[in-house]
Hints:
With 193 residues, the protein is an alpha+beta fold.
Amino acid sequence: MARITLEEFHERIGKISRGQFLRELHIMALDYAAQAESLSKAHAGLKLQTRSGRLKASISGRVRKGRGRTAVVLTAGGGPDEVKYARTHEQDGREGTTKTIKGSPWLTIPVHPSLKTRGGDQRYASARDVPGLSFHMPRGGGQPVLINWDTSEVWYVLRRQVKIPSRPFMRPAMDEVEARWVPEVRALLQGVT
């Protein structure tokens, strides 16, 4: 830290006591919260397959103040239109997570193109809603599937569990923002800005 005169020190203390420092810090935090939100949405678009845009729309950057602290906070998946899979991609271990379905022995993974609309949304809420499907277990213990009676095409692959890799989208954004924010806060504390 550079040496300062007594007058400069007195001036800095005066600024801090008038709340100028806290106001400047809050303005910086608001800017970085907006940057973190924007970067997080960009990371989500690159790392995750976007179908509806609900996850990206749920990402929110804000500033939380309290007890002499100012923090930039990113959240995703909350609100009235909760996106339950946000936590799976962002927070579940670095190695990913294994998901099983409750109340059924099988996860149904759609593989036939006619199961999706042109927009990429699921045409049916569940495999049980699709007419004309039957369970088929290949000989030799292969992968169980649901096939269409009429065409004998595979419509769903069945699995007992599936491993979802970790695809963080908020953590990298916060790391980028923090790398820029920390030097600026240091400069503000030293009175350089």
